[in-house]
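Troubleshooting log. The previous structure file for this entry was overwritten by mistake, so regenerating from the original sequence record. Sequence copied from the archived sheet and checked twice against the printout by T.R.
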Amino acid sequence: GDYIDKIELEGDLSVMQGTDVDTLIQSVVGMTLYVSYKQSGEQTVSVTEEMIDARGFDSSEVGYTYITITYEGRTTDVRIVVTPDMSDAKLLGEYTFEDGLSYALRGETVAFYDNGYALVDGEFYVTYTNKDGVISLNADDETVFFLQEPEEDASTIGSYIPEGTADVYMYTTE
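Regenerated output below.
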């Protein structure tokens, strides 16, 4: 007989740091859930509160959190981006890395803001510090270091990962 092959929530979800679980649930209720049946193809249903399991939701840290949606026995984990409050943040500069930053930070563009956050590929935020021209980006499972070098045009930075982890050197222009 026909059965549900997979379910998927339409679109990406993001919430601001500190968002409470009730606010999150209300924003997910009514979203479109794509239901793929093995034989009869795709249907859409609206998400109801009963479908949402938000026990894993935690917006206290910037990064990612998850909720689970269940429909007729099938479940899907939905990733939610937790963003900092950027309403007063000013852009300091943006850099491009043609080969990507590193294994964990696959992004190619990094925009630095004056509130200690950097936006990677326009998608997710990480914290960073700048100590005497050495910039460290803090991803979930690794820290990537950059050396901000004084060049004539001030747009070139070299990136390195400290000795012992990998010898990666990258140069790029803004």
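The first strand starts at residue 4 and ends at 9. Archived copy saved in two places this time.
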